Amino acid sequence: MELYYLDNQFERGTQAILGELGCRVVKGAPRMTGPSVEKGLLEYQCEEDVTLFVTEGAAFVDLRDTADCWLRAKVVAGGPGLQIKADVFRRVQEAVKGIPTSIVQEGSSSKKEGNGKGKSAAAATAAQVVRRYANPRDAFDVIEYHKVRELTCELCRQFFQAGWVTGTGGSISIRHGNRIYMTPSGVQKERLVPNELYVLDITGEVIDSPAPKPNFRPKLTDCSPLFMHAFQMRNAGAVLHSHAYSANMVTQLFDGKKEFQITHQEMIKGIAGHGYRDTLVVPIIENTAHENELADSLGEAMRQYPNAVAVLVRRHGLYVWGNTWEAAKRHGECLHYLFDMALQMSSMGFDFMTKPTSAITAGCFDCSEDTSSSKKRAVESSTGDAVAAKKKTKKALTADYTHVLFDIEGTTTPISFVKEVLFPYSTDMVQAWLEGGQADPAIVEGIKQQAEGDGLKVPSNGELVAFLTKYVQDIVAADRKDPAVKKAQGAIWESGYTSGALKSIVYDDVPPAFQRIKDAGKHVCIYSSGARKAQRLLFQYSDHGDLRPLLSCYFDTTIGHKREAKSYAEIALSLGAEDPATVLFVTDVLEEAQAAKEAGMHTIISIRDGNLPLPKKHGFHTVTTFADF
Ligand SMILES: [Zn+2]
């Protein structure tokens, strides 16, 4: 069956485009000849799916696609029929004037006709005849397909000016209804003209290619398989690929990391689903020698980061998309702004991954230092022999506390143990845990419900283990702290610890410090994002033996988020502390220190190898060893 678009007859229709409209070509003759169909340019809808066959001559059946463009099918006598979905707008006319044409609908049980002889079922049920499409010129007036081509070229010129698509690098793709427009490869994007574009359907099949010219041998952009991921997996309206300097540079600032992150910036609001206080995360994938080899890792990053609207490619650039071309452009603009901001802030020693310090809580330990002295102190600590700063820290450590509250990761235990041992162990063992028969059915059920909540279809028995294994691994890889998955991890760790397969690491200076604090009649407590049970296991099965006798209590995030002041106020109450100031909190995370301080606790930041660097002007005391506790 011949299929093409009326607005540009070089742009073919395909089975995939018909499929997107819910329509298809039906082989063979009608099983039962039903009523004949009225011909003309009137557009109508039917109340049920119908299949049209031509029994004499030939006819055009026009279907209106999702962008108001007419897709024309030429149906001939003896050839296949066209099954059309009820809610698709259509119209039928004779292919050749003067040659008798007879079009019939496949016989159905419906007896809807009754408006008199000669009225077909289709016409009789055509409740919404749309007059504005009655004119033969409609196909050319209503649909301005060429505007999409012009728009693509105009955006290329703008993005060239912005430095996103220079040196023939970078490209863009816009979806219009069921057609996807893409730029050719290796051309100067700022000089592109409308007839040099490619058109594809949703499966990636090319339905129109630009004609070769003396100096122009067209080739489809190498980004095409990457663009198709965004169209197919995210239903994108447009995708941009930028080679901007800043997009490349941030991947080097985050060298060795899988994500770019920034928080507390107004422009984050421009990214769909994000607010000012959110941490914007853009996954980073590694570059390859050829652009199209990136397709698999880009697809994987999209699966792992369902909220991401973009993916960075190391030392290369950015892929960014949106529901419409306007959204994709806005996302591109906001991201490039945020990349520039991160680079500038980082070069000036500012931290773009933490929230700003408000004027009320700014300053130093005793809240009395002014900016100049805190600046001085920053310089002192950075020189390494800051006697005055050391004295102050010592004083802070020996103050009259009743409780010392420790974070785990980056404080008592290397971050690398959690990231490189504990988490991989849970993902490596999840399948064995599910298959071994010791998995708690309530936890498994919780994971299933969570997967369904994510919009995934949970398969039945045969594929269930493989599905849940992959799901848990994806959630852990995305660093999501969902309760059901956390519980599963806890159960897996417990069996690892008790079987002896797993042993935790605490720094050598930790057990003696705990002992001294206890000997002084004070309490050692833990506050960590890992579940309390997992914390207790970690100290029970440590490389320094069972440390539980030294510990008084454990807190996890069920008491509140670690970056919120009220969690620390709650902990002080739970500890029975008369005044939060009698609690000393030790952590490696600046925001946690700020939150604890806001609640009135004294706070010290632990600096250990492998911890994230702190901004220069944080204003907290720091320790690199627990020897002084
Ligand atoms: Zn590229």
Can you walk through the features of this model?
It is a single chain. The protein has four domains: 2-138, Jelly Rolls (Sandwich); 147-347, Class II aldolase/adducin N-terminal domain (L-fuculose-1-phosphate Aldolase), CATH 3.40.225; 383-412 and 505-628, 3-Layer(aba) Sandwich (Rossmann fold); 415-494, Transcription Termination Factor Rho, Rna-binding Domain, Chain A, Domain 1 (Orthogonal Bundle), CATH 1.10.720. 34% of the residues lie in helices and 19% in strands. The chain has a nine-stranded mixed beta sheet with strand order 14-13-12-11-15-19-18-17-16, sandwiched between helices. It has a six-stranded parallel beta sheet with strand order 22-21-20-23-24-25, with helices on both faces. Helix 12 runs antiparallel to helix 14. It starts with a strand and ends in a 6-residue tail after the last strand. Residues 109-127, 139-143 and 360-386 have low confidence and may be disordered. The protein binds zinc ion. Zinc ion binds at residues 169-170, 241, 243, 291, 316-317.
Task: Tell me briefly what this model is.
By secondary structure, this protein is of the alpha+beta class. It contains 18 helices and 25 strands. It folds into four domains: 2-138, Jelly Rolls; 147-347, Class II aldolase/adducin N-terminal domain (L-fuculose-1-phosphate Aldolase, 3-Layer(aba) Sandwich), CATH 3.40.225; 383-412 and 505-628, Rossmann fold, CATH 3.40.50; 415-494, Transcription Termination Factor Rho, Rna-binding Domain, Chain A, Domain 1 (Orthogonal Bundle), CATH 1.10.720.60.
